[in-house]
Amino acid sequence: ALKIYLTGLENSKVKSKLYLYFHFTVKKSEIECLIRIFHNVVGRGDMKLVNVGPDRNTFRVILHSVCGMTDDVLMNRVFFAFDKDNDNYINVKEWVKRLSVFLRGTFEEKMKFCFEVYYFNGDGYISRERIYDMLKNSLHQQSPGEETDEGIRELVDIAVKKMDYDNDGKISFADFEKAVKEDRLLLEVFGPSSLKIDFTISFLNSSFEQLCFANM
Amino acid sequence: MGVALTRSAQWTAAGHGAKTLEVTPLNEAIVKEIILFVESFIYKYPQEANYVFVEPLEWKTNLDPSAFGSGYAVSGTTVKSEEVDKNGEPLLYLSVPQIKIRSFGQLSRMLYFAKNMKLKEAQACIEANENPVAKILGFDYNIINEKNGNSFVSSILDKITKDDGPEIEIKMKIALQLKQLDLHLLNHSLKHISLEIRLNPGTVKNDIELLKRFSGKGEQTVLESIEYTSDYEFSNGCRAPPWRQIKGEICYLLVKPHDAEILCVTCSKEGVFLNGGKTDDEGQINYERKGEIYKDLVTLLKEKSAIFSENMSKQEVKFSEQPQKDQPNEAPKEEVAITHKASIASRKSSQEKNRINLGRSQLTKRLEPSLNWRTSVSSKDRNTLRDTQAEKHGGKLEKSRSSLSPGRAQLIRKSIEKIEEIISDSSSESEEDEEQPDHRQETNADLPSEYWQIQKLVKYLKGGNQTATVIALCSMKDFNLAQETCQLAIRDVGGLEVLINLLETDEVKCKIGSLKILKEISHNPQIRRNIVDLGGLPVMVNILDSPHKSLKCLAAETIANVAKFRRARQVVRHHGGITKLVALLDCGKHSAEPAQSSLYETRDVEVARCGALALWSCSKSYANKEAIRKAGGIPLLARLLKTSHENMLIPVVGTLQECASEENYRAAIKAERIIENLVKNLNSENEQLQEHCAMAIYQCAEDEETRDLVRLHGGLKPLASLLNNTDNKERLAAVTGAIWKCSISKENVTKFREYKAIETLVGLLTDQPEEVLVNVVGALGECCQEHENRVVIRKCGGIQPLVNLLVGINQALLVNVTKAVGACAVEPESMMIIDRLDGVRLLWSLLKNPHPDVKASAAWALCPCIQNAKDAGEMVRSFVGGLELVVNLLKSDNKEVLASVCAVITNIAKDQENLAVITDHGVVPLLSKLANTNNDKLRRHLAETISRCCMWGRNRVAFGEHKAVAPLVRYLKSNDTNVHRATAQALYQLSEDADNCITMHENGAVKLLLDMVGSPDEELQEAAAGCISNIRRLALAIEKARYS
Question: Which of A61, A205, B320, B1021 sits 20 to 30 Å CA-CA off B743?
């Protein structure tokens, strides 16, 4: 099955166009591999989507099965962050572009991506309400009837206090950038947005190598 | 008198009947003073002595009526004095057992009759008459006295003007006298109190526990055994039976020193003394005091056992040395107190430092309105809180270490690292026990706001998922974790457990966050212990294997902080941490960093640096040094040493310096060509780095080859130039130490002279801490071996400060000072100065020093002094008891002391008169007793002394009688020509006596001497030949007698 995709791709013009979007450190062969992975993972979903790419549900399945993400809100947001043209599908271009950020992207790029995921399609700020949405499942139910709600609100307060440098009650990109630069742990402060970067990378790296070898 | 009696005399608290005075040295002293006053009263103030008391002093006496002599009417059981008052009443009236006395005259007479019962009578009198002043002068005087001491005199004057009359005047005089006595007594008792150190069961127990640890068989222990007589301990910590506890006694001990019989010792609140020992029949203790009272157990034992004091002094050096090393100087500057330094002063200064740092870290922190006002508000309280804590620590440490010398002597640690480990352990352990309770017991009201905030965050750590955990961790990091309040708050709300648990999860981010916090709070010694107790170290050691470099770094840095005490270092080792840490050092070699780096990654160099940091902390334990070496750490350290990053160099050199105490390491350091790089880094800008390099050189330069290497790589010049900066005392100590060791080689000394280092060293002889002085003087002592340098030292006025240092107490310093002074004395001109400064007397008095090293060194120094002094014989005689002291030192069992004392005696004996004196002190039998020795140094000096001592009276014969001759003959079989020469000379002298010749002949001396005649050494030739001729002449005479 793999071969079919490969042959299909090699002839397409898309490939050469794609290079333009990639992060400069991503090598040609790596792109090819990424494309192969794309088709590989897509292949796990619905075969019909081969040419267009996964829609939201398929993508969520991928996020769940490959990256172990569970949070609905975040998965949706990651999807929207991938789907730059808002056509509800992730095409090869979007896929490769995003993943190249994870693989070889600079810190700033990753930071931008995370911020995008968090602020969603808002006004460029992460507001308290959004944070609340993102954190609402972050506390284990200690005992029934305990005010987890209040606990989460306090947690939100703590987070805002930590990151809101200009004291406007919401987090701008500048706030976010400053906080993350000070402490890199804050990059995924509101949940694993960048596909649980480290684990994902190791996953990708391994499939990467496998595919590269397969290609040779 | 009244005030003194009520305030400072120690009354027993007995509730019933009359109060009694406790039997204490203080009371005894007070009563004695009073007796003295009363006795002299009759002579000093004869008029006032006749004054009749308002009320008689009355008490139950033990005096027998028959004791009273003339001037008294004795009838059966009553005695009346012939002296009567105006009304005809006798001034002394005794009706067994009651006695009434109404004048000072009678009082002092009574004391006269009491003879050796004075003390009891006076005490009974004071006990029975609660308010003697009121009885003597009338009640109104006493009231004034008690109420207002200051206006006493003026009110007396008032009274004088009011009612005139001769009797009142006398009364006033007496009142003034009594007042004076009172003041005198108060002063006196104050002196006593300040001398007196009250012991309590706790301190006694600590002392005993400590001594127990160092007791046992073997040479290095201080005692053979130390045992309580009773296993039962009362709830108040005492072991004495209750009826003895009333007397203030705490417990009884059976102590067996190496060199004395079992001592039975009583520890009481007043001090420690020998009691009557166990009585054989019932195993009961004879509680009677049999000796002087010492201030504590150690002092008593030092007095009773020479070996104890010797070994104890060795331990003390280690005691004071280890803690100091426990404190690497990089990060932990912010660390809150509990540096182990013994003096409060240094503690205070480090506190200051902390506070400054604290302020700085607050400033550099980004402004954060909501948090910041809290910190600023509570920072004041916190400081005061910390101060009181520091004082607590200070007090405690001061107490528990009061018996240890505060000197931080930089002695070279040879051998017995094991004991050192035990010591470091025991000291830190006891500290832990002491400290923990008082922090946990804080009441809620006093808790700072941080406490509650931190508690909330810990709640999220416990109950949150990864996201919440990370937020909480990041937020926690914003607290000032260098502050003890925050550190303890994290612990007290159970944060440590959670943080350590997080390390065991798979979440990299959580691990990083947790380690970042642990790294900060582990600057606190209590937290360190808690982390170890909670099993944090094995987890961290495992993290060292992680593929994430930043995790490795953080784990290594945290280990570096935690492994500041022995138990922690042991845990690191037992879990294979050392090998892993050494492996971290290996990262440094990939100079080309891979282009791709994961999000949280750091550079390889950083990993190596953290590894070195952790190894530095760990390398303070002997076993860890070995482990580092076995794991192949030395070549890696050597390679890292070639980098130019200061951050890297400091821990690397620090580790090397720590390890260089081991012979193995010094060899490896030489082999790995590390010296070159150490020398290079001496030129660094960083003071700390310079310090550690100098320290490492100091350790390594024990070896001659190393000393040459230092010179060849140009290390002497930077060392010499570093001498000019005296502000950083630690560095100065390290640099002077390096110079000392380097100057053992002659070539190096020449270089130092070129660099004018000797002048600078002389300048450092004043106003420096002891650890610097030890090294400076040591270096000067080495330099003094050369004539030119001695001249330099004299010319720049170095002799006076050197002689001044002879009065110190630091053993290491004294050894060096005596050596230096001795070396200077070789120069007659310098000798004049030394003599003028009374240096010889000071040296002589050092012969009484308990440490054998000091004794020997002082004795060696005395030799050139006696040789070069102008009127040496007279000078020596002027030291009262000096000759006897020297002769008695021949009873020592230290070979070095014996050899040096022999050398001194050789010089003393050059003066006939002195030779006569030492002969009277029995020098001959003592020398003869020493004759059976294998030590060539001792043999040589002994033989010289014997040949010198033969010059007086019948000493030759006496040596023969004390069987010194036969062993001397055996000396000729030694391999040392110096021994041969001295022995031949001694035999020559001895051979003047016929019996000695026979002994020599019987022991085969002739053949040995014949060989010596062929020696190239002329003196030896001559002495051997002379001796043979004496023997031969005797043989001829015998033959002649036989045939004639």
Answer: B320
Highest-confidence segment of B22-31, B231-240, B827-836: B827-836
Run of H or E including B73: strand B72-75
- What's the one-letter identity of residue B483? Q
Contact state of A188 with B478 under an 8 Å Cβ cutoff: no
What is the arrangement of strands in the sheet containing B92-95, beginning at the earlier edge strand?
Answer: B57-60, B98-101, B92-95, B78-81, B72-75
Length of chain A measured in residues:
216
Task: Compute the average pLDDT of residues B16-38.
Answer: 70
Q: Which residue has the tokens 């990299």?
A: B508
Which one, of B371, B368, B364, B522, lies nearest residue B453 by Cα?
A: B371
C-alpha A125/C-alpha A170 separation (Å) is 6
What pLDDT is recorded for position B145?
47
Q: Which residue has the tokens 């790029």?
A: A109
Q: With contact defined as beta carbons under 8 Å apart, do B681 and B690 qualify?
A: yes
Residue B117 has pLDDT above 50, yes or no: yes
- Whether residue B60 is predicted with pLDDT greater than 80 in this model: the reply is yes
**Which chain B residues are Cβ-neighbours of A140 within 8 angstroms?**
463-465
Chain mean pLDDT for chain B: 77
**If you measure CA to CA, which chain B residue comes closest to A158?**
B475
CA B180, B185, B188 angle in degrees (round to 5)? Answer: 125
pLDDT band of residue B356 (cuts 50, 70, 90) is: very low
Residue B952: pLDDT band with limits 50, 70, 90: confident
Question: What residue has token string 């506070």?
Answer: B355
Mean per-residue pLDDT, B498-524: 87
**Is the alpha carbon torsion for B830, B832, B834, B839 positive or negative?**
positive
pLDDT digits (tens, 9 = 90+) for A32-60: 666 776 766 665 544 444 455 667 777 77
Residue where the block lists tokens 């405690």:
B396
The 10s digit of each residue's pLDDT in B683-722 is 888 888 888 888 888 888 888 888 888 888 888 888 888 8
Cβ contact (<8 Å) for A138 and B465?
A: yes
Pairwise CA distance, residues B785 & B782, whole Å: 6
DSSP per-residue codes, B234-301? -TTS--S-HHHHTTTEEEEEEEE-TTSPPEEEEEETTEEEEEEEE-TTT--EEEEE-S--BSSHHHHH
Contact indicator for B794, B830 with CB cutoff of 8 Å: yes
Amino acid letter, A152: I
Considering only CB atoms, which chain A residues are within 8 Å of B475? 158-159, 161-162
Tokens 């509800």, residue? Answer: A88
| Sequence-separated (6 or more) residues with CB below 8 Å from residue B874 | none
pLDDT score for B941: 92
Q: Which two tokens stand for residue B335?
A: 């660390």
Output the CA torsion B684→B687→B691→B696 (10° steps): -30
Distances (CA, A) of B9 to B271, B607, B876: 18, 68, 48
Phi, psi of B23 (to 5 degrees): -85, 90
Q: How confident is the model over A155-165, as a mean pLDDT? A: 83
CA–CA min distance B394, chain A (Å):
38
Burial of B844 (0-12, 13-18, 19+ CB in 10 A): buried
State residue B795's pLDDT score.
87
**CB-CB under 8 Å, A167 with B467:** no
CA distance B513 to B519: 10
Q: How far is Cα of residue B899 from the mean position of the Cα atoms in its chain? A: 27
- Cα B921 to Cα A52, B558, B631, B841, B928, distances in angstroms: 116, 66, 61, 20, 14
Q: Kindly state the DSSP code that residue B367 receives in the 8-state scheme.
A: P
B279, pLDDT greater than 60: yes
Phi, psi torsion values for B285, nearest 5 degrees: -100, 135
**What is the value of ipTM here, to two decimals?**
0.77
Residue A138 has its nearest CB partner, among B459, B464, B473, at B464
